[in-house]
């Protein structure tokens, strides 16, 4: 069995599972946020009206809650949703509720690894499509709709069809100017936005072994954009160290068997990869940066679960140090812990000296919610994960997706720029 | 959830691929959580201009499709964000069947939670149905789509079919099997992860 099959077999009490088997898996952790949470509460209300008891959750210690999409509250409706969420966690005794304005909080997928909420081998589900991100820690992590989250909260388990696995093998490490974001965009360009539909996308090979945990998180995050059920990397010493530093204990570094089967294997040579962008209006619309259209950019956005982890800010700082931005640029660290490290290590000063506006952790303009959304005809380069029409604001705005290195280099020139070409 | 009845209706052709949930319900409406009333936000940015006037060239604004219950669209429908609001909006607008060559995973699953039947058919058949101007009949029990000229059959997972036909949601469904679940729990020895 491969790693996903082993996790699902363990969680469903079976000795062996194969692709297309339907399993009833015990869930180890479940997450909801300020958009999915109020939806879940609505489902609870409906169930109660039907006479189904919602007095008790299956296990409130396995539930955690993030505030990220519309926080700090963008206007009164989102403020009310935060109150609803707070009442819910209080009523059910959910202690892991990361509240803005009260220490650590941030984008749910960032909190999942910054706070070691999810362990290797876990079945982890969340009310958000980018829940896939956390597969980089060696968990089976996938997103659910509101009704499914409500179901898990009450029952602690859920049905899955065991997915087929596509294995992406990276031979050799990425060059310094190429980031994990470039690699995952390249893959999405190759297989398309439905190329991974219903499948696991597993990443391995010497290039992935060399990659930091944070880079692997970027890879798994955007498996969602390829339509995948989940993304995963087999956990290793780096994952062990990453989680142990964040207080985790009793880690189980689960791996697939040596005779594990994969539906298809894709191979990439690290040395051949280049910085790329995804042009409007699809993450599969890939161009090498040096061949990208010469457009006048209006904005640069460095934020989101995909592109505002500490390592992403470090990459941006490497470019912005001693330079000035030529277009409006925002940097929003994805969690308070990252914000704090960025302050302690001098990154915030580099950003402010360069002219950047530094904002609070939030999904913000990535999902067009607030904090710098785009006007009609505005063109933005962004470290986020989606560039559908209107995703970041006006339906006639445009977003180019890129790595933090490319985004920062482009902020300096005002045009889409390969970091190697920066003077 | 209401049980799924046979649907006879003209089809609304939406000839686009990779329609994502941001297009189905734009983000500004996500803060709202009532399940009803979302129909007015369906495909909002495609249906209305900046002054919220209807855009005449968008298919939903063409009165000949008024009352249609069947949306026929392109590959990978419902990709992007997991927002269940997308399904609420389609249902509230009046669609109960969506036909496409393929669907995004979470969206597909959300449909069954809310009583919408998503049907995958090969691209050629979908193209043909998009051009069908006369009413068609979708019979879930028999797994067929009848047009005036032919009968097309479709596949559906038997478990999902039952959910729709009986109007069960997953929670109600599980409660039917409470004894079996308890039994399963008692007997299952969960081995530790190797």
Automatic annotation (TrEMBL), chain A:
<dbReference type="Pfam" id="PF00330">
    <property type="entry name" value="Aconitase"/>
</dbReference>
<keyword id="KW-0479">Metal-binding</keyword>
<dbReference type="InterPro" id="IPR033941">
    <property type="entry name" value="IPMI_cat"/>
</dbReference>
<protein>
    <recommendedName>
        <fullName>3-isopropylmalate dehydratase large subunit</fullName>
        <ecNumber>4.2.1.33</ecNumber>
    </recommendedName>
</protein>
<feature type="domain" description="Aconitase/3-isopropylmalate dehydratase large subunit alpha/beta/alpha">
    <location>
        <begin position="20"/>
        <end position="414"/>
    </location>
</feature>
<keyword id="KW-0432">Leucine biosynthesis</keyword>
<keyword id="KW-0028">Amino-acid biosynthesis</keyword>
<comment type="subunit">
    <text>Heterodimer of LeuC and LeuD.</text>
</comment>
<dbReference type="InterPro" id="IPR050067">
    <property type="entry name" value="IPM_dehydratase_rel_enz"/>
</dbReference>
<dbReference type="GO" id="GO:0051539">
    <property type="term" value="F:4 iron, 4 sulfur cluster binding"/>
</dbReference>
<dbReference type="InterPro" id="IPR001030">
    <property type="entry name" value="Acoase/IPM_deHydtase_lsu_aba"/>
</dbReference>
<comment type="similarity">
    <text>Belongs to the aconitase/IPM isomerase family. LeuC type 2 subfamily.</text>
</comment>
<keyword id="KW-0456">Lyase</keyword>
<keyword id="KW-0408">Iron</keyword>
<dbReference type="InterPro" id="IPR011826">
    <property type="entry name" value="HAcnase/IPMdehydase_lsu_prok"/>
</dbReference>
<dbReference type="GO" id="GO:0009098">
    <property type="term" value="P:L-leucine biosynthetic process"/>
</dbReference>
<keyword id="KW-0411">Iron-sulfur</keyword>
<feature type="binding site">
    <location>
        <position position="363"/>
    </location>
    <ligand>
        <name>[4Fe-4S] cluster</name>
    </ligand>
</feature>
<dbReference type="InterPro" id="IPR006251">
    <property type="entry name" value="Homoacnase/IPMdehydase_lsu"/>
</dbReference>
<feature type="binding site">
    <location>
        <position position="305"/>
    </location>
    <ligand>
        <name>[4Fe-4S] cluster</name>
    </ligand>
</feature>
<dbReference type="InterPro" id="IPR015931">
    <property type="entry name" value="Acnase/IPM_dHydase_lsu_aba_1/3"/>
</dbReference>
<comment type="function">
    <text>Catalyzes the isomerization between 2-isopropylmalate and 3-isopropylmalate, via the formation of 2-isopropylmaleate.</text>
</comment>
Automatic annotation (TrEMBL), chain B:
<keyword id="KW-0028">Amino-acid biosynthesis</keyword>
<dbReference type="Pfam" id="PF00694">
    <property type="entry name" value="Aconitase_C"/>
</dbReference>
<comment type="function">
    <text>Catalyzes the isomerization between 2-isopropylmalate and 3-isopropylmalate, via the formation of 2-isopropylmaleate.</text>
</comment>
<comment type="subunit">
    <text>Heterodimer of LeuC and LeuD.</text>
</comment>
<comment type="similarity">
    <text>Belongs to the LeuD family. LeuD type 1 subfamily.</text>
</comment>
<feature type="domain" description="Aconitase A/isopropylmalate dehydratase small subunit swivel">
    <location>
        <begin position="1"/>
        <end position="123"/>
    </location>
</feature>
<dbReference type="InterPro" id="IPR004431">
    <property type="entry name" value="3-IsopropMal_deHydase_ssu"/>
</dbReference>
<dbReference type="InterPro" id="IPR033940">
    <property type="entry name" value="IPMI_Swivel"/>
</dbReference>
<keyword id="KW-0432">Leucine biosynthesis</keyword>
<dbReference type="GO" id="GO:0003861">
    <property type="term" value="F:3-isopropylmalate dehydratase activity"/>
</dbReference>
<keyword id="KW-0456">Lyase</keyword>
<dbReference type="GO" id="GO:0009316">
    <property type="term" value="C:3-isopropylmalate dehydratase complex"/>
</dbReference>
<keyword id="KW-0100">Branched-chain amino acid biosynthesis</keyword>
<dbReference type="InterPro" id="IPR000573">
    <property type="entry name" value="AconitaseA/IPMdHydase_ssu_swvl"/>
</dbReference>
<dbReference type="GO" id="GO:0009098">
    <property type="term" value="P:L-leucine biosynthetic process"/>
</dbReference>
<protein>
    <recommendedName>
        <fullName>3-isopropylmalate dehydratase</fullName>
        <ecNumber>4.2.1.33</ecNumber>
    </recommendedName>
</protein>
<dbReference type="InterPro" id="IPR050075">
    <property type="entry name" value="LeuD"/>
</dbReference>
<comment type="pathway">
    <text>Amino-acid biosynthesis; L-leucine biosynthesis; L-leucine from 3-methyl-2-oxobutanoate: step 2/4.</text>
</comment>
<dbReference type="InterPro" id="IPR015928">
    <property type="entry name" value="Aconitase/3IPM_dehydase_swvl"/>
</dbReference>
